[in-house]
Amino acid sequence: MLPDLIAPSILSADFARLGEEVDNVLAAGADIVHFDVMDNHYVPNLTIGPMVCEALRKHGVTAPIDAHLMVKPVDDLIRMFIDAGATYITFHPEASEHIDRSLQLIKDGGCQAGLVFNPATPLHYLDHVMDRIDMILLMSVNPGFGGQKFIPGTLDKLREARQRIDASGKAIRLEIDGGVKVDNIREIAAAGADTFVAGSAIFNTEDYRTTIDAMREQINLARSV
Ligand SMILES: O=C(CO)[C@H](O)[C@H](O)COP(=O)(O)O
Q1: pTM value surpassing 0.90
Q2: How far is Cα 107 from Cα 122, in angstroms, rounded to an integer?
Q3: Closest CA to 56 of 77, 35, 78, 76
């Protein structure tokens, strides 16, 4: 398995102080920045775009930026996020006209590519792309909003995705997003996730370091059995 990564979702950060918030959460031990892009079309909310990603790079953020595109169509925004300095770019397969072409666009742009699965989206979209992806992102809430409750059925889906990754022999990250908290992250890690998106659980706490340390401790407990 790849090393575990904590990926705070800036959806729950204070947007009026975004650069400072990202600096603080990285200084508190976060590994990568999860960047939620919503278009008020594919999902019922509107957030931030490539200009903000570029602004974070200009601000001095060197950590990987994990751009999760909740948009339809996807290819124009893929191009824009490549230029804006994203590290990972993930999209929802049902939002792309040509999944293979969208993945290739990301790879040609020098970024890491991934597919995102809503709670009811079947994993069979992976069948013919395992050799072309770097990340699988499983949504454990319906996309659009932070602060929702983790959908327990996602644990079985995580186990299935982990089996597919292990069988492929490829270094593919398995990311989980939605309702991840200190008190459920151990079970999520045990089910096979190695990349943990957490928005409200981190940004709604007073001390980011305490929360991130507590999450890492729970993940390490899952790894020690
Ligand atoms: O993609 C998202 C919603 O579509 C968010 O990343 C996700 O919900 C994280 O928020 P929280 O940890 O508060 O559930």
Answers
A1: yes
A2: 24
A3: 35
Does this complex have an ipTM over 0.95?
A: yes
Residues at CB less than 6 angstroms from ligand 1: 9, 11-12, 34, 36, 68, 141, 143-148, 177-180, 197-201
Annotated binding-site members for substrate: 9, 68, 144-147, 177-179, 199-200
Domain, as residue range, for 156: 5-223
Q: Count of domains in the chain?
A: 1
pLDDT in tens, 106-137: 999 999 999 999 999 999 999 999 999 999 99
Residues near 65 by Cβ (< 8 Å), separated by ≥ 6?
32, 33, 35, 53, 56, 57, 85, 86, 87, 88
CATH code for the domain in which residue 76 is found: 3.20.20.70
**Which residue CA neighbors atom 6 of ligand 1 most closely?**
9
Whether 177 is a known active-site residue: answer: yes
